[in-house]
Amino acid sequence: MEGGHRLQGEVSVSGAKNAALPLIAASLLTGEEVLLENVPQVGDVRTVLNLLRRMGVQVERKDPHCLSLRTEQLAFWEAPYELVKTMRASVLVLGPLLGRFGRARISLPGGCSIGSRPINLHLMGLEKMGARIELKGGYVEARCGRLKGAQIFLDTPTVTGTENLMMAACLAGGQTVLENVAREPEISDLAQLLVSMGAQIEGAGSNRISIEGVKELRGAQHRIIPDRIEAGTLMVAAGMTRGDVLIQEAVPEHLQVFMEKLREVGMTIGVEPNGIRARMDGRPRPVNVKTLPYPGFPTDMQAQMMALVSLAQGRSVITETVFENRFMHVNELTRMGANIRVQGSTAIVQGSAELSGAQVMATDLRASACLVLAGLAARGTTSISRVYHLDRGYEGMERKLASLGAAIQRLPE
After folding, report:
1. Residues 19/186, Cβ–Cβ less than 8 Å
2. What is the pLDDT of residues 134-144, one digit of tens each?
3. Quick one: 288 and 373 in the same domain?
């Protein structure tokens, strides 16, 4: 990409990748058709669809963003290592498999490039519901009769843990109460689909969810919510280039804390009937940011915010509290002229007047977005390798940015 081009115009966000994955897994809970609309065409969705096809799920694309899923019977109850290692959200099939079929064999995800994210809370909750769980050769092997309702308190508000237990509880006998759960909009979106399938769920979006189990669930049709992280990334793109961009389909209620930080940086953020308008007229102001579980500042926007304040007039402090190894983008930003010093879980960013184009390498999904943003603003040419990380969670990012005026193209690796 050639930096220095002001972004201007309108762009639409795709469906939320982090909502699509549990919604697809939820199709395992019924033998009837589940029809999902606004499905993003991203790498993580392709991975989970490959997993479901291997299990015997009938997957049909009605159009590029509409999926038909039907799980009348399964050939396998396993999520193998080669799929789980590329996308740990594959563990989301554990709850539905146990809830409907009473058996599952799931590879342990282990660590990842942004830190260790164990599934012990998933397993603890399922054991309280009556599952018999063994760890053998790097796999979770689980069996049960019909799961039973239980009172479950999560030590940490884990998103995938909340989703796994919520799906399992839908077909359990009696009432399950989940406390100290995650509150992300993607969890509320999953609950909406499950309710339309016949589940009895109350409290999704709060820190306490109550599920009254039913004997079976039916098919349903559901439209996936817009991707709040993609929307936030595009807002930062406008800020990096002193642009003026209308992000269509973006939901302001999902981005309140993030939008306030952008206003603190000096951006003009306006809510319009069809989305959010983001505009920037000068250099950013410095800010202090601490990532927190929703509704706090999202960890998935930390890298992008770091790119923005690397151009600020002054010193910013960014503290990461969710994952322990999420500053892998710092070295690459430094190659582009950013002045960043890391002390444990805190990054101190001294703003620079400009960034310089360089050859850099993406290390994970959000770090790759951070480097794209930096390249939009940098003087000269930036070349980013390993952009398959970007494709895991962003649909056609280079096409969307080019439509706003960016000089960006994808080349063979």
Report:
1. yes
2. 999 889 999 99
3. yes
Q: How many alpha carbons lie under 13 Å from residue 236 in its C-beta half-sphere?
A: 31
How confident is the model at residue 114, as a pLDDT?
37
Active site residue 66: no
Is 2 a member of any domain?
Answer: no
Q: Specify the DSSP class assigned to residue 171.
A: T
Residues 162 and 193 in one domain: yes
Quick check: is 64 in a domain? Answer: yes
Catalytic residue among 112, 144, 170, 370: 112
The burial class, CB within 10 Å (0-12 / 13-18 / 19+), for 205 is: middle
Reported confidence tier of residue 110, pLDDT bands at 50, 70, 90: low
Name the 3-class secondary structure at 281. coil
Inside any domain, residue 410: no
- Please indicate, yes or no, if residue 408 is contained in any of the structural domains: no
Domain final position from 223, 256, 280: 223
Q: Quick one: 117 exposed, middle or buried, by C-beta within 10 A (0-12, 13-18, 19+)?
A: middle
Residues whose CB is less than 8 angstroms from the CB of residue 390 and which lie 6 or more positions away in sequence, other chains included: 362, 365, 368, 369, 372, 384, 397
